[in-house]
Amino acid sequence: MEGDGGRREESMGAHLLDEKRESDSSVTGVLLFSIFTAVCGSLVCGCAVGYTSPVESAMMADLGLSTAEFSLFGSLLTVGGLLGSLVSGKIADYIGRKRTMGLSDILCLIGWLAIACSQGAWSLDLGRVLLGFGLGLTVFVVPVYIGEIAPKDLRGGSVLVHQLVICFGISLMFFVGLVITWRILALIGIIPCLMQLLFTFFIPESPRWLVKIGQDKEFEAALHCLRGIMLMYLLKQLTSKSILQPFKRYQKPTSCICFRKNMHMHSLLDLG
Q1: pTM of the entire predicted model
Q2: Which single residue of 22, 66, 160, 170 has CA 20 to 30 Å from 241?
Q3: Which backbone phi and psi does 93 adopt, to 5 degrees?
Q4: What CATH class does 8-271 carry?
């Protein structure tokens, strides 16, 4: 009987979700501001990727760098990015999406300052690694956060903005770098870091992450803030044990999944 009651409760919750899809998909100012805050990190990523192209000759002349030293400086972004991406999922699950974005901003801020104030190759390389590590966190957490807060019918377009802003950042650094010095260009890269770091204090945490760690009250507040849902009964159904059970039964994927027989083709395509 308890099983039948649980199924009826879950069915009722799903029915309410379907009936109120239009309300769920409402676009609020907080939602748009949260997406804007997230894609500030995308701009940081684009600026970092596009930085080296316009500053190569001036930086080599000012600091007396060899071609090999400058090439190492440029490539260290990917090294830092690799290290950051390896721990990005763990960090985002442990401290939350907002705090992960803030941590990324702090690392990128330090990296940009190290580059802007650099007097030699070692400080350039250190700043580039820190910048890359921060980007490794950013490229993971930004689309995850956007995907978790955006309504279903807006999710694809919202995540697409992440890619577009990265491309915009690359182009911006290339054209601006043609008319200013490489130190000033590095300081310009700090601007989106500061913007996102400041704005994260005014956006809600991902409701899905709050559900995952069992903070149901905070989940209700975040969902209300993002979507403007006023029906408390719907929120009660969303936070009921039967509805949240799938999240709590979810098992984190591991690297072993890449070696399953049915995943061989996907793994080869990823490597390509």
Answers
A1: 0.77
A2: 22
A3: -75, -30
A4: mainly alpha
